[in-house]
Design goal:
Elements: E1 4-8, E2 11-14, H1 15-35, H2 45-67, H3 75-79, H4 90-105, H5 112-132, E3 157-159, E4 166-168, H6 170-190, H7 199-218, H8 233-255, H9 261-286, H10 291-319
Antiparallel strand pairs: 1-2, 3-4
Helix pairs in contact: 1-5, 2-4, 4-5, 5-6, 5-7, 6-7, 7-8, 7-10, 8-10, 9-10
């Protein structure tokens, strides 16, 4: 259930839809301010942003429809305005990645890599707003119901519209982490002369994947594939993204001086972090009263994966 903002005749505008719509101009302005830093022409953005937004909406809703077909009579109903339901955040990333690839394919963009590198900080900022839109609906809340009156406020908990129930504000944690990711990516992008193509976008995939592994595990309304009800769609895609980034950095290391002891240490640390995160996910689903300990352990495991992946890049950079 969403909170209504404006009612004009039979037309109702909801606060969450307004915040989601604002994410597009915020993304555009952030991208516009950084795209020309390396001498790129901004004209392509007038095609890229609308195309990326349209593809993101389509893919995010298709992913949600596939996992929740029981909520909709037909696919067309799921894509129609006002059909209700949510969306998958990874659809936003896939939509803009596809848009960049299409524009490069028809030679309207000089480089998909440079376009996505410039998009990475803007994507993090725009998706932080998308996360905050959940404040006005009942999505992206934690599994735990907050009973302590002192904690029934942000950043700890948020109510569900139309209900007196307060749950952990998983959306607020996600928005804060995405805001932090935006600042990290902005710093990396500002040193563009020192980066290779894809570096900023790869870092975005790494950090966003880590954020999604944690936040999607916390939320009570995570989306699952029809053939799997243990690990959510977002966690699967996030794990795949993190492993892909590790593989890219490792391949670069193999091409510049071969694989050394530093790489092996990083890989072992990554594997340990992956096992810790996986074990924490298993335990939190089997023992609901262990949530605080499990999520602390999961955070440590995810952090180990991020740091070890970043260390692989650093070891490779030192050899170049």
């Amino acid at each position: 259930m969403s909170t209504a903002a404006v009612c004009i005749g039979g037309t109702v505008l909801y606060w969450d839809a307004i915040v989601m719509a604002l994410a597009v101009p915020v993304f555009f302005l952030a991208l516009w301010s950084g795209f020309a830093q390396n001498g790129e022409r901004r004209g392509v953005l007038w095609l890229y942003v609308p195309l990326g937004a349209a593809l993101s909406l389509l893919i995010a809703r298709l992913m949600f429809w596939y996992c929740h077909q029981e909520q909709f009579g037909t696919l067309l109903a799921a894509l129609s305005p006002g059909s209700g339901g949510g969306f998958c955040m990874w659809g936003v990333v896939l939509g803009f990645a596809l848009a960049a690839g299409l524009l490069r394919l028809v030679r309207l963009a000089p480089s998909a890599a440079r376009l996505l590198d410039a998009s990475a900080p803007a994507l993090a900022l725009g998706m932080a707003l998308l996360r905050m839109s959940a404040l006005f609906n009942g999505s992206c809340r934690g599994k735990t119901i907050i009973e302590d009156m002192r904690l029934r406020r942000l950043p700890f908990a948020a109510s569900i519209p139309g209900s007196t129930e307060f749950r952990f504000a998983a959306f607020f944690l996600g928005a804060l982490l995405l805001g932090l990711i935006f600042l990290v990516l902005l710093g990396r992008f500002a040193h563009g002369a020192r980066n290779r193509d894809w570096d900023v976008f790869l870092l975005f995939l790494l950090l966003f994947g880590a954020e999604e592994v944690l936040v999607d595990s916390i939320r009570y309304d995570a989306t699952y594939f029809n053939f799997n009800a243990f690990v959510s769609v977002s966690q699967i895609l996030s794990a795949a993204a993190i492993v892909t980034v590790l593989a890219v950095y490792s391949r670069r290391g193999a091409r510049h001086g071969g694989v050394g002891r530093g790489h092996w240490i990083c890989w072992v640390c990554f594997f340990v972090g992956l096992c810790v995160a996986g074990l924490s996910e298993y335990l939190v689903q089997r023992h609901g009263n262990w949530q605080l300990r499990c999520y602390a352990l999961m955070s440590a495991g995810v952090l180990a994966m991020v740091l070890s992946t970043a260390a692989v890049r650093r070891v490779t950079a030192q050899r170049r």
